[in-house]
Hints:
The chain is an alpha+beta fold. It has 3 domains: 5-58, no CATH class; 63-202, no CATH class; 209-321, 3-Layer(aba) Sandwich (Endonuclease, Chain A), CATH 3.40.960. Helices cover 40% and strands 17% of the residues. It has helices at 5-8, 10-13, 20-25, 30-36, 60-71, 88-94, 143-153, 157-169, 175-184, 191-202, 207-217, 263-278, 288-293, 295-310, and strands spanning 17-19, 44-47, 50-52, 84-87, 105-110, 121-126, 132-135, 138-141, 225-226, 229-231, 237-239, 243-245, 250-254, 282-286, 319-321. Strands 9-12-13-14 form a 4-stranded mixed sheet, with helices on both faces.
Amino acid sequence: MMITPQQSGAPRRQLNLATRHQLTTAGVPGGTITSRTRPGGPWQRLLPRVYLLQTGPPDHRQRALSAVLYAAEPAADPLSGDTAVLTGGAALALLGIRDAPPTPADVLIRAPRRLTGTPEVRPLPTSRWPRTITVSGIPSTRPVRAAADFASRAEDPDRIRSTLAHVVQAGWCHPQDLHTELRASRLLTRPAIRTAAAELLAGVRSIAEAQARDTLTATDLPTPLWNARLHTPDGTFLASPDAYWPDEGVALEIDSAEYHYTRDAWHATLRRRLRLESHGILVVSATPSIIRDTPTEVLAALRTLLTLAASRPTPPTIMARGHVQLSLPLEGRL
């Protein structure tokens, strides 16, 4: 008696996906697979030798897992992460990293094994097999390795900056761990990646902050702390401005309209600024587009407040904790 794919158990574990090897091993004849995947049939061929056993369109998880099933060795358990594992932008997209490209899906395979890629899947042979995790049922590399593998294939410096910053800002890895992974992957020889990694070590956490840092480093203004956590003398948390000059008590806040669509979000921003100002901190507020399009106005405002602050008899008694500003570039860390 023929064993149906549902009885084999693989589709239940694999988001209703199965490989040709799994189907034939379960007793499904090749002719049955062919007939069921014809136009209008109950199954769909997503990739060579990978089938979706449903009529509806695949969701993003099924597309991601289909790439792993395609790349895994036929006789291996594709969910084990032993022979194929999702990485790069596709793995970051599963974690909710904004702007991480889910396709083509980068999948690590063990070198020296080779596998032909498709428009949807890029197999990446590696001799440095990573520790793996499972994200939404899909074997993936840890975020720090996924970020490094993404950077290795990306070409746009701003996309590299933005994506790596989002990974760190979301708390998926520490900037020092990311720097170590990029160095182990021999990626710090690329100027765009080296710059992005150095900015993250310095405390920069977004593309807008990176652009602000570019603007500030071209001037004679003092070097600020990035994303420092400010506390009152009794230890109460105050705020974490994007840039802060502790000697002068001046902060730069970069407020994107993207995060102020709601009244509550806008009020939260205003309350944060009021808390800073109530403790004597002088604040310059700007949007990413203002920093990009009219940086001279931002620099003029900062210069004015830094000059005013220097003449104050008593600077704010605020403690800055968190990221310590490092000298850039970090040649000794490459």
